[in-house]
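Board notes, transcribed. Complex of a protein with 3-methyl-2-oxobutanoic acid.
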Amino acid sequence: MGKRIYFFDTTLRDGEQTPGVNLNQDEKVEIALRLESLGIDVIEAGFAAASPGDARAVRAVAKAVSKPMVVSLARTNKQDIDAVIEAIGDIENTGIHIFIATSPIHRERKLGMTKEQVMDKAVESVSYAAKFFKHIEFSCEDATRTELEYLCEISEKVIEAGATVLNFPDTVGYTTPEEYTHLFQYVTEHTKGIESVRLSCHCHDDLGLALSNSIAAVKAGALQVEGCINGIGERAGNVALEEVAALLETRKDNYQTETGINLKEIAKTSKLISRLTGIAIPPNKAVVGGNAYSHSSGIHQDGVIKDKSTYEIMKPENIGFTETKLVLGKLSGRNALKKRFEELGYTVNEDQLKEIFKSYKVLADRKKEIFDEDLIALLETQPARNESQFQFKDMSLQILSSNQYRAFVNITGENNTIIEGIGEGNGPIDAIYKGIDDALKIEVELIDYKINSVSKGKDSLGEVFVRIKNNDSPVKGRGIDVDIIVASANAYIDAINRLTGLNEKLYQTNSIPVQK
Ligand code: KIV
Ligand code: ZN
């Protein structure tokens, strides 16, 4: 049996640092449960000290999953560590991930600290955390630009203080496979006590080397790989964990490693992350891109028809991609719907089924053929609307001239009140968005708008992603409908609902004119 490689997923922490990505607690729990099915060993659920909301989400994730270890990030100060203790210290199978920058540039320019001061902080915080957690990961931020002797010195000291995992991040995506191999070999050879801890790698993709560097680390002795699904994360992102998993499996002959990853869960996990973060998967993305298993040139097609392995090194079904099927029609019943969800690997409880079936009937009236993708879209967009959230109700549009539209918009607000707005714009969507702004008396900036078709055919469901901003950082929204104008309105209102505290503020100031 090969050596066991542990997968540390930081989609909910480093991944959430992707500009414009903000996940609410329910979404974080949904992702964590999916990561559990995927077979992730450690989930970094967030940064508990960042805000009370982040701490609550970290706790909710730790309570929701049972197999993976759940950790929260902390800087080397007591407040951060206390925030983690308070959030998850009482929950089984949890730990802490403490980091401080160790490179000269970070020590001098960012922290204004000497080597000794950084070392003292590291040791002091690991010793303190060790009173509360058995699992303590320590990261030397910007390790790949740190003096190797100093990395060994600090590693030795934090191991003595109680660290159980040592991580050497390539924080700025600067290293090369050869250099990273050398780092792991050097630290392994020159650090007392290193054999008692798990070594971890954490690679960013600024130069497109995150996968090669992670694999170099594994070859040099790292037993844990950190990354994010779909390779999201700060700047150019983190290594895409699905790529690491697919590589270790496909080239087992070369790496001889074992993992706990259930490859068949990859497609579903990747789609969920894309949907909840609003970050589309590029068609040419390795392992999970839409084109990864399609063959367009005649020569390739000919080869694949004769023998798939001529041009396919992985079977799409092994990654969890199912063949799209025309599934159900207008007359299909609830049981057929339930059965198809089960075949697709989704567990739907009776309450969910009842709600989905209603939406399904509405959709079946408007769309001739319903595909698997439509069903999944229905399942994933079941309204999680709480009473204080806004919901698009209906609208009418007037064409004033070839490039001037007027929209009359109705939105459902708290206690089912109807809020009306009127907007004019140079296209239908511009007019509707202005109508929504008018109804809710807000001004938001639309910074991104994307539209995709969920399945095939002219009557396909349209899926719209938007990103908006008022004073805060950007938030995303998603909407789905056969009518792309309605999908656009849904996406915009979904994003507005995510602007922290906005609804409460609007209602409190009574700024919304309501019609009972
Ligand atoms: O990239 C990095 O250095 C990090 C640390 C906080 C582990 O994300
Ligand atoms: Zn990182």
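Residues 254 and 270 are 26 Å apart (CA to CA). Confidence is low (pLDDT under 50) at residues 507-516.
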